[in-house]
Design brief:
The complex is a heterotrimer of chains A (162), B (361) and C (100).
Chain A lengths: L1 H21 L3 H21 L3 H26 L12 H18 L18 H10 L2 H22 L5
Helix pairs in contact in A: 1-2, 2-3
Chain B lengths: L1 H36 L19 H12 L10 H17 L9 E4 L2 E4 L8 H11 L1 H9 L4 H32 L4 H7 L3 E2 L3 E2 L2 H4 L1 H14 L23 H26 L8 E2 L2 E4 L4 E4 L2 H27 L7 H30 L1
Antiparallel strand pairs in B: 1-2, 3-4, 5-6, 6-7
Helix pairs in contact in B: 1-10, 1-11, 2-10, 3-5, 3-10, 4-6, 5-6, 6-9, 6-12, 9-10, 9-12, 10-11
Chain C lengths: L3 H21 L3 H26 L3 H31 L13
The chains are: A mainly alpha (162), B mainly alpha (361), C mainly alpha (100).
């Protein structure tokens, strides 16, 4: 069952990931990216990380991509203005270099199969207890960063009527 | 192993069947309820050989109409997205009910079957994750119609939905803190305990502010009156004007299923779920030391399921009544309410609850 | 059981695809989306390693990384909107006013 789910998520995820990069229309790229993110949430669930799986769906697929879709709709680019980007040779070379990089890195990965995790691994209680005790400083700094991002985004996006 | 899989499938089938039938009945109940409130009769013409059955056949007539109408895609619209949007709107509505428990453990022949389709560790957060996916249906519907008015309607609807998701999530955190768990079956079981010896520890008694905030935010998330400006049937163009027949039927059905979901969530989190007051696993334990009535196990489980159903039905009925009681908000009023009034209230509720929980334990 | 190297291979492929997207595409929106793809790939490798070493710190890092990525996407899109208002295009090849 886990094997079947892994291959389904892997094929759909990688396929949609490649389609994100190769599509002309940003709207289609956004939809493919949403599907990729949902496949990644499935991966996190397979890797005994239920909390990060739902957080991925909630934040990434549910909020960040909604924001991107909003901006795409607001910019409302017509199909004709999106010209062909880059020549075929450039794409082939880029693809080859990418393939070489992946093939170089893959043999370096550990081949072990992970054993069974401890009982409450990756649950809300587990992640929460680590987040608020050991990693409390990054947590507080991230909250300040979010505040800065809110102020920055609102300031930039407000039309200044001179 | 295989038996467990089959049991989960049966549970999922039962839940989906109940959900869809209830949503279908709600379409009839809404019209009859609004008619009774407005001192008229409501739909009563649909008949099979002159048997009108109080207008219940209108549900079937609606279904037949929606299947039989012409299904068109407007010219210049994105065909794939136009077809995908109703599915993207219906899918989250159907999936949320997987974590809502509708009874305690059922013991048949030595096998324990928890009456909940999936007991996730991250129960409540899963519900919010799926609710945040529900925005895509409206956004894609508005965009894929190649119609400027529907695009504006879609943007309006989705910005309303994402604004109220925040207040919805924050108002539930108080419940999480009080019952010390995010799993919905643990929350419902904890609500069986008694406060001061006689009052069941329901969420409504412990977190009244959160209850009202959650109901308001869930109504806004559901685009239901008084927040139904995105669909605003008689005064403004909504995001599904270019949809006909079954695709519109799917949007319509998704909205009514979400009414059942809101009612189910409110019941589970605030009104004790399947808990009948003073009913434990082996019978009634009356307070003030009045005695114990023992009941057979199957009767207890039946009472629990019946209690859950009655509570959900009462919640749905109240939501239907609210529709014809309150006028509609304007869009800027909706946004102001969500960001400037509900969000600070939810945060204040969270802080007060945290302080009280810290002081009590 | 799936060996951890399979998850890491998927992560490597996604990361490389995202990197190609950032370098080759001219549409700023698609560049931002490829950037998000790269971040997601790295998150996947974090969770895979966390599973291998039974350390929840990987999950905590992914949680914070998702948060930071959300903030960065918001600010990046706000900048994009501001550029679009004055230049009427999102083609990054036309943004060379500071070049000599």
């Amino acid at each position: 069952m886990e094997t079947f789910l892994f291959w389904v998520f892997a094929i759909v995820g990688v396929g949609c990931g490649i389609m994100v990069v190769f599509h002309r229309n940003p709207m289609s790229s956004a939809i493919y990216l949403i599907v990729t993110m949902l496949c990644l949430a499935g991966f996190y669930a397979l890797l005994a990380g239920p909390f990060v799986a739902v957080i991925q769906v909630l934040v990434y697929a549910g909020a960040v991509m909604v924001l991107m879709l909003f901006v795409i709709m607001m910019l409302n680019l017509r199909e004709e203005t999106l010209r062909r980007e880059g020549s075929m040779i450039a794409w082939l070379v880029a693809g080859l270099i990418g393939l070489v990089l992946v093939l170089y890195v893959v043999p370096l990965f550990p081949r072990t199969s992970a054993g069974t995790p401890p009982a409450a691994f990756g649950t809300i209680e587990d992640v929460g207890s680590k987040l608020f005790t050991v990693y409390i400083l990054p947590f507080e700094l991230t909250s300040v960063l979010l505040l800065i991002a809110i102020i920055g985004a609102v300031t930039l996006a407000t039309r200044r009527t001179l | 192993m295989f038996l467990d899989f089959v049991i989960v499938l049966i549970k999922a089938g039962v839940v989906l069947f109940a959900l869809l039938s209830l949503a279908g009945l709600l379409t009839w109940a809404e019209r009859k309820q609004s008619a009774f409130m407005q001192d008229r009769i409501g739909p009563n013409r649909a008949n099979l050989g002159n048997i009108t059955a109080f207008g219940l056949l209108h549900v079937m007539a609606d279904g037949i109409k929606m299947i039989a109408k012409e299904d068109f895609i407007p010219e210049g619209a994105n065909r794939a997205l136009h077809t995908l949007a109703p599915a993207a709107a219906l899918f989250p509505a159907l999936v949320v009910f997987a974590v809502i428990p509708f009874g305690d453990v059922l013991v048949i022949g030595g096998k324990e079957i928890p009456l909940q389709v999936a007991n996730l560790n991250v129960g409540i957060v899963y519900i919010f994750a799926i609710a945040s996916l529900a925005v895509y249906g409206t956004m894609l519907a508005g965009w894929a119609s190649n119609n400027n008015y529907s695009l504006m309607g879609g943007l309006r609807a989705s910005s309303q939905m994402i604004s109220y998701e925040v207040s919805m999530g924050l108002s539930i955190l108080g419940i999480l803190m009080i019952y010390q768990s995010a799993q919905l079956d643990v929350i419902v079981r904890e609500q069986g305990q008694l406060l001061w010896g006689f009052l069941p520890k329901w969420g409504f008694f412990l977190q009244p502010v959160a209850f009202f905030l959650f109901v308001g935010a869930a109504l806004a998330e559901n685009k239901r009156v008084p927040f139904d400006l995105p669909e605003g049937e008689s005064e403004i163009i909504g995001y599904f004007v270019e949809y006909s027949s079954m695709k519109f039927g799917m949007f319509f059905l998704a909205e009514f299923i979400e009414i059942v979901i809101v009612s189910g969530l409110v019941t589970t989190l605030f009104f004790g779920g399947w808990q009948f007051p003073y009913l434990q696993a082996d019978g009634f334990h009356w307070p003030f030391e009045l005695g114990i009535w023992h009941l057979p196990h199957l009767l207890v489980v039946l009472l629990q399921i019946a209690t859950f159903s009655v509570k959900v039905l009462v919640g749905c009925w109240i939501l239907l009544v609210v529709r014809w009681t309150l006028p509609r908000f304007r869009y800027d009023q909706v946004m102001r309410l969500g960001w400037k009034m509900m969000l600070p209230l939810a945060l204040a509720n969270l802080v007060v609850t945290a302080v009280i929980v810290l002081l009590v334990t | 059981m799936i060996p951890i190297s399979h998850y890491l291979t998927v992560s490597a492929i996604l990361f490389t695809t995202g990197a190609i997207g950032v370098l080759m595409r001219r549409n700023a929106l698609i560049i931002l989306m490829s950037l998000e793809l790269m971040l997601n790939a790295v998150n996947l490798s974090f969770v895979a390693y966390a599973r291998m070493f039974n350390d929840v710190g990987g999950h905590v890092f992914v949680f914070l990384s998702i948060t930071v990525a959300a903030a960065e996407a918001a600010v990046g899109l706000a900048i994009l909107l501001t550029i679009f208002r004055t230049r009427e295009t999102v083609d990054v090849d036309t943004l060379h006013l500071l070049q000599r």
